[in-house]
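Forum > Structural Biology > Help requests

Title: Can anyone predict the 3D structure of JAM2 protein?

Hi all, first post here. I have the sequence for JAM2 protein but no way to get a structure on my laptop. I'd be grateful if someone could post the structure tokens.
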Amino acid sequence: VAPTTPVCEVPSSAMTGTVVQMSCKETEGSPPSEYQWYKNGVALLEKTGTGSARAANLTYTMNKKSGTLLFNTVTKNDTGEYFCEASNGIGLSQKCSVKRMQV
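Reply #1:
Sure, ran it for you. Structure tokens for JAM2 protein below:
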């Protein structure tokens, strides 16, 4: 079953240095969807513990299975427009509407 449009939870504002968790979920897809977060239209890297993601010194952790995007300490650099995409290899992937977070 192809995924439906996911529900994204993105805070509209956050204080610098606080923990922020964004979530993305859809329930119709079978097999279960994987989730990819985007910031300003660019796909965010998944932190795997090695390679380019760590070299980029990421301030967040993205879990493609659960759809969460967790910032341990947000900075002004994290301000931007976020959305996520759900896909499970069946039908078209689905995106939620873009939401802006101001830090």
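Helices lie at 52-55. The first strand starts at residue 7 and ends at 9.
Shout if anything looks off.
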